Amino acid sequence: MFRFSAMLLAGSLLAASSASAQQRDHTPADTTSGPHRPDREMMMKMMETSDARLDQLVKVMNQSTGSKKVDAIAAVINEMIAQRKMMRGHMREMMGHAGTPGH
User: Fold this and answer.
1) Which site among 48, 65, 86, 101 is 20 to 30 Å from 59 CA-CA?
2) Is residue 14 part of a domain?
3) Tens digits of per-residue pLDDT, 20-56?
4) In the predicted model, what is the mean pLDDT of residues 1-17?
């Protein structure tokens, strides 16, 4: 059961990494102009910080064994959930749906 859970987590991590890489590839070519440039820079820094935090947790997870491995896996999952919720909140703000239920 543990191996299945670990494989499921690894698949989720790969999917998240792939989606993240695809999103980065689709950024507009000219990000140096326009009224939202500081917001973009701040968002990019926040994403880099989030990526670094997740990378560190994954490193700890990969080095852990026994019951510490389970705790490390839980930490990775919790971080992924927190980052996803934060990203969805930012997307809602950008799209103007912050107060719309069901989105």
Assistant:
1) 86
2) no
3) 444 444 445 544 555 556 788 888 898 899 999 999 9
4) 53
Sign (positive or negative) of CA dihedral 19, 51, 79, 3: positive
Buried-exposed string 29-59: b where 16+ CB fall within 10 A, e elsewhere: eeeeeeeeeeeeeeeeeebeebeeebeebbe
Q: Whole-prediction pTM value?
A: 0.56
Would 44 be classed as within a structural domain? yes
How far apart are alpha carbons 66 and 56 in whole angstroms? 19
Amino acid at residue number 39? D
25 inside domain: no
Q: How many CB atoms lie within 10 A of CB 61?
A: 21
| Structural domain includes residue 51 | yes
What does the alpha-carbon distance between residue 28 and residue 35 come to, in Å, rounded to a whole number? 14
Query: 62: helix, coil or strand?
Result: helix
Residue 1 has pLDDT above 60, yes or no: no
